[in-house]
Amino acid sequence: MTISRVRFQCRKTRKLVSPLDAILDLPPGDVTVSLSRRALRLATYTSFAPLQEELWIQHQVRLSDSALDMLMQSAGGVAERDRQSLTDELQSVGLGVARESRVKVDLADPPKRLYVSCDGVVYRTRYREADPQHPQDKRVVYQEMKAGSVFWQDAGGKWHKRVLGGRDDPQRFGLSLWGLAAQCGMLQAQEVIFISDGGAWCDTVAESYFKDTTRILDWYHLSEHIWEAGRALYPDDAKAAARWVATCLDHLHDSSGIGLLRHLQRCRTMRDVADHPSLDALINYVQPRLAITDYVDYQAAGYVIGSGMMEATCKQLVAQRLKGSGMQWSESGALAMTALVAHRLNGTWDRFWASRPLQRAA
Question: Which residue, among 353, 322, 337, 335, has the nearest Cα to 121 in the 3D structure?
């Protein structure tokens, strides 16, 4: 359906105004809400070039790169501001009941066991900086998008999850993740498990907002550290390295982190690896994290000990859309796209568009 409307332009500012748009509650610009919603949903799956082809095939409509970018920045920018507003609201009140009362549980049947996790994904930006070794050259700047995931298993055995992304500092991102977990029933759950790698900022999030949860160091992340040490100890003998790693993993599986640590300390008496810096580095990594490596008890309780769900979240939320071949992102563009992808993954796409994001962006 085509609607003809009068458009006026200010002589001073050159701004265009269509009075009928306000009457029909249409956002500024030449793209309707319906088309914007469809186009941006496709944009959360694929880059603009194949998206434009699909728009023409499915709707006989063409949208330029600039039009799509404007829509993404507008709607995605509102989605990101909504997340920041909720975080501001939580930050404005103190810990305890005051903060907890600000969060509404978003599930009809909150889970009894809830998992919380976080990680980061590095992506390519469109910014450049001087190369320290070659000051005359400029090199690409890479940035990290923080990703958080809250997941659980329902009574029928089906897994569910909610996600968020952001470029905040660890304290603020942790509060945002706490808010998401609270919406998913963390405060009503009988068990809450925080699982992550050993990264410093992940530890900050856990210690600041999830201190009373059961902490688990991701099994596969620790395994990677063991493999790294094994390859360094036996650089010229892949079979010997594999045997050494297998023995370490057996100790870790059968006796948790304390069993692995004791084995590593015994390895210091072995002639071929004694005093090797890689062995010392692994011991120094495991020792302060013993409290979160009790895998025997974790498995006995039926806990998930690997961050496969978080890895999948990083891929779905950030990597698939921000790390495509040749892609470069501005700060606002990366945040806007990640916020839109999060709404799709969380099943809140329709609710978000019911809030009139394009009108709010005007």
Answer: 322
Q: Is residue 116 part of a domain?
A: yes
**What one-letter code names the amino acid at 20?**
L
Longest pairwise C-alpha distance within the chain: 87
Query: What secondary structure letter does DSSP report for 216?
Result: E
Question: Does the residue 142 lie in any domain?
Answer: yes
> Model confidence over 314-326: pLDDT tens digits?
999 999 999 988 8
Same structural domain, 191 and 322: yes
Within this chain, do residues 99 and 203 fall inside the same structural domain, yes or no?
Answer: yes
107: buried, middle or exposed (CB in 10 Å: 19+, 13-18, 0-12)?
middle
Give the bridge partners for 152, in sequence order.
160
Distance, in Å, from the CA atom of 207 to the CA atom of 142, rounded to the nearest integer, reads: 27
Please state the domain count of the chain. Answer: 3
C-alpha 200/C-alpha 173 separation (Å) is 14
Q: Is 315 found in the same domain as 226?
A: no
Mean per-residue pLDDT, 79-83: 98
Domain range for 257: 220-300
The answer to whether residue 3 sits within a structural domain is: no
Report strand pairing: 113-130 vs 138-153. antiparallel
Say if residues 71 and 36 touch (Cβ distance below 8 Å): yes
Global pTM reads 0.90
Dig out the tokens for 358 from the structure.
């394009």
Task: Kindly tell me the burial class for residue 167, based on how many C-beta atoms sit within 10 Å of its own C-beta (0-12, 13-18, 19 or more).
Answer: middle
